[in-house]
Amino acid sequence: MKHSLLFTLFALLWLGSFAQLPQFSPMNFEGWIYNNPFIELTTQDISNNRIVLYKTTQGFNYTLTSPEFPCRMGQTIDMTVTWVTEQWKNSNFDVSKVALTAAILDENDVALDSVTYRLTSSTVGRTNYLEMSIAIPRGLTSTRLRFAAWKADVNSLGAVRQVVVTSTLHGDVNLDGEVNIADVNAVTDIILGADADEELRHRADVNRDNEVGVADINSVIDIIMG
């Protein structure tokens, strides 16, 4: 009985730990690593656009890496990123060098997979709101996310500044850190007319067809079944 209780408690803690996905903003940056030794991660530095991702003239890449968090195969991490580019109207601005990459790392900080979002002359602005997703590779039980702007350099004025990251599990409609029957119920409630703000409806649109319907219920069930 004691062992059963301990196992149940451990399982609950393990499941709950998936709620601790990395977030980065001026108010939430504990455990993140910005590999510029001259800049300390503080609210003031972040708010003043001093967190800059680019490649130096010596070929060194400034990156932003999340704290470690638990994961499992089959999960997809959705990231909503606010990405500020300074001087985007400058005549020297080179949009071909403006690309933000999110990589998922193993225990040795080796990138196992990555996704890159590229801006174009028709989409770039000072403040850009992006959505990126990356799947958990086989065999990982914990990982970190690393953000980089590999193409950007100071001279191109394509550096990425003031990155704000909000991450959730794909299908986690109610934001409890797990994809389960509660998310099926959350989607069902919206279909039946429950009040839902824009962010909630976006999470409930699991299959990304721009509407919340029965297909999204099936998508959540598919994620649960793995």
Can you put this structure into words, describing what you see?
By secondary structure, the chain is α+β, with helices and mostly antiparallel strands. It contains five helices and ten strands, in the order αβαβββββββββααα. It has helices at residues 2-16, 43-47, 181-191, 198-204, 214-225, and strands at 33-34, 52-53, 63-65, 69-70, 76-84, 99-105, 111-118, 127-135, 142-148, 160-169. The strands form two sheets. Strands 1, 3, 4, 6, 7 and 9 form a six-stranded antiparallel sheet that branches. Helix 3 (181-191) packs antiparallel against helix 5 (214-225). The longest helix has 15 residues, at 2-16. The model is unreliable at 1-19 (pLDDT under 50).
Q: How many distinct helices?
A: 5
Q: Based on CA inertia axes, which overall geometry fits? A: globular
Terminal Cα span: 31 Å
* Unreliable stretches covering 5 or more consecutive residues: 1-19
Helix/strand order, N-terminal first: HEHEEEEEEEEEHHH
How many strands?
10
Q: The biggest beta sheet, please?
A: 6 strands, antiparallel
Instruction: Label the structural class.
Output: alpha+beta
User: Any idea what the radius of gyration is?
Assistant: 19 Å
What is the percentage of strand-forming residues?
Answer: 25-35%
Name the helicity range. Answer: 10-25%
Task: Provide the residue-averaged pLDDT.
Answer: 81
In terms of topology, how is this protein built?
Elements: H1 2-16, E1 33-34, H2 43-47, E2 52-53, E3 63-65, E4 69-70, E5 76-84, E6 99-105, E7 111-118, E8 127-135, E9 142-148, E10 160-169, H3 181-191, H4 198-204, H5 214-225
Antiparallel strand pairs: 1-3, 2-10, 3-9, 4-9, 5-8, 5-10, 6-7, 6-9
Helix pairs in contact: 3-5
